[in-house]
Amino acid sequence: MKFVSALAPVLLASSLLVGCAHKIEHKAPQLSDFSPEQIEQMNRDALAIASKRLEEMVIQAKASQSGVNYLATDLFLKANMSLLEGDYATAVVLFKHVVALVPNDDFLQKKYAITLIRTGDLQEAQVVLERLYQKTKEEKVGLILAGVYTGVDQEEHARRIYRDLLSNNPKNEDACVFLSKSLAVSKETTKALAQLKSCADKDQKNGMYDYYAGKIFLDMGNVPKAVAAFTKAHERQPSLGQAVSALGILLEEREQHESAIKIYEKYLKAQPKDSTILTRMVQVLFLKERFAEVIPYAERLSDIEPENLNLKVKLGILYTDAKKYPEAISVFKDLLVAAPQSDKILYYLGAIHQEMSQYHESIEYFNQIPSSSGLYTDSSVQMANMLSTLAQNEHHEKGETKWKDSFLKHVNAKIEEFKDMRVEFSVIKSGYFEGIANYKEAMETMMVVQDEKSFSTQHKYYLANLYEKEKKFEASTALIMGIIEKEPKNAHAWNFLGYSLLVRGEQMEKAFEYIQTALKISPDDGYIRDSLGWYYFKQGNIKKALSELELAQKKVPDDVEILKHLAEVHKELKDYSRAKTFLESALKHVRYQQDRLEIMTAMEELDTSRLPASGKLD
């Protein structure tokens, strides 16, 4: 980026005063009116003029010590301010003249040299630093000078300085490391490794030398020796995060994740706020799907890096997975402040509130997802499902229509909006009507879309079931027989026919034949076993019924119908406690409010049956 010298605006203003004096009515030119090249030239011109003027001021100031002190202080403050503002070109000019005023101040010489380096004037910096190092032999000056030598391709001079520093202080870590790096770059790896070993022997608690040896081995492609070097660095200096990170990464790359986790875990007990190792720990635990363990590390890392939004998203997902919903909501709400239009964050918040059955809040978040989002369709589906539940609850509890109106408006709009999802939204709409026992409306809703391409076999089963509830048995049978004509080995279709006859109490032997056909095709199917058990119950064979139904429940433990059938069998056996247990279990998994009410009625009847004769009301 091209800088604008602090002196350029002054020069620009002064150069324009004369030229514009007779044209007051015109707007004065601004810096924005000039090209970058023109501004850069003005910078150079301004600096040249300012430098010339400063030379004159320095000559004048040297006439007295007070003048020197005053001007040197003033220029030093201005130079420092230029450094803070990143205006190194101006700072160099100012420091140059400060040094001219106070030539024997080592601190000013060093400051001037560093500023020269920042402007890229390495040769002038070299002159200043050579003179200063010769005078002071200061380690920091020597390291800077060696770095300049490297920058101007005088590598042997750099190595001479590093060796000089090491001869005076064998534990000078920077000198040793830079010297070995210099040798390694020149492909003198044997000498580089020997230098690092020599330094390590003299400073045995410092793991940095083995760490850099490991990096050299890595560059050579010798992974085993690199692992050994990083391990040794870690042993020498357990607090050296670079060694832990390098060793852990190598272990991860070799899929030795458990070993990497152990190293990270041990290190983080002593250095709990090392963000680099925390990041690695979070990543590897995520990879191994150890979500419960990763949470405390992710929390700690998030505290250290509060602006890391990706990490916050991960943490929110972890909280959600661990069912820590309030914590997840708090994280995603913070993220929403930073990214108020994020469809993903809105979706996460909607999904969490939905999981908590806080449908009002969930709908509010889902409703903010724009139609351009890839999550818009699913959010529309989830809203439809929740509005259906709210409308059903409203129907059974209050008899009002607020949520019903909202639901029907939403679902009808989506049926029109999503042409390729008309069936899916129609199923939700039909489910609402089924939930309030309006089977006729539910059936007609599905009939409207039965010619759609996406109307699958499962949708046919659902429509057939609605036909059954409306006692349209011929239509139901015809629909299922149509499935069997295309799929003669469809066990569920045969089972549907048999169970339908059982429920009606008609053609029991025919029902048994259909169920047996289904069982031969799919003998391990829990639903078919349930039908067989219910057949035996209808026939009065309670023992066989119980055996088949228990087998069915093992295969499909949460099915409401199977649980209800088991409750009925145990009621018949007068085992009322067991019967109630199955009804309570069914109540946990019931989908529609109407079915919930039926189960609760059955439980009340069961309680009545348990009362002794003297306790029953006449």
Can you give me a brief rundown of this structure?
TPR repeats lie at residues 241-274, 309-342. Keywords: TPR repeat. The protein is mainly alpha-helical and 618 residues long.
Question: Could you describe the 3D structure shown?
Answer:
77% of the residues lie in helices and 0% in strands. The relative contact order is 0.02. The termini are far apart. The protein is mainly alpha-helical. The chain has a domain at 558-618. The chain has helices at 8-19, 36-61, 65-84, 88-101, 106-119, 122-136, 139-151, 155-168, 173-185, 189-202, 208-220, 223-236, 241-253, 257-270, 275-287, 291-304, 309-321, 325-338, 343-355, 359-366, 376-397, 402-417, 422-435, 439-448, 457-469, 473-486, 491-504, 508-521, 526-538, 542-555, 560-572, 576-589, 593-610. The protein contains 33 helices and no strands. Helix 3 runs antiparallel to helix 4. InterPro entries: TPR-like_helical_dom_sf (IPR011990), TPR_rpt (IPR019734). It comes from Peredibacter starrii. TPR repeats lie at residues 241-274, 309-342. This is Tetratricopeptide repeat protein. Keywords: TPR repeat.
Properties at a glance:
TPR repeat, TPR_rpt, Tetratricopeptide repeat protein, 618 residues, disordered C terminus, TPR-like_helical_dom_sf, mainly alpha, elongated, disordered N terminus, 77% helix
Give me the secondary-structure topology.
Elements (H helix, E strand, L loop, with lengths): L7 H12 L16 H26 L3 H20 L3 H14 L4 H14 L2 H15 L2 H13 L3 H14 L4 H13 L3 H14 L5 H13 L2 H14 L4 H13 L3 H14 L4 H13 L3 H14 L4 H13 L3 H14 L4 H13 L3 H8 L9 H22 L4 H16 L4 H14 L3 H10 L8 H13 L3 H14 L4 H14 L3 H14 L4 H13 L3 H14 L4 H13 L3 H14 L3 H18 L8
Helix pairs in contact: 1-2, 2-3, 2-4, 3-4, 4-5, 5-6, 6-7, 7-8, 8-9, 9-10, 9-11, 10-11, 11-12, 12-13, 13-14, 13-15, 14-15, 15-16, 16-17, 17-18, 18-19, 19-20, 19-21, 20-21, 21-22, 21-23, 22-23, 23-24, 24-25, 25-26, 26-27, 27-28, 27-29, 28-29, 29-30, 30-31, 31-32, 32-33
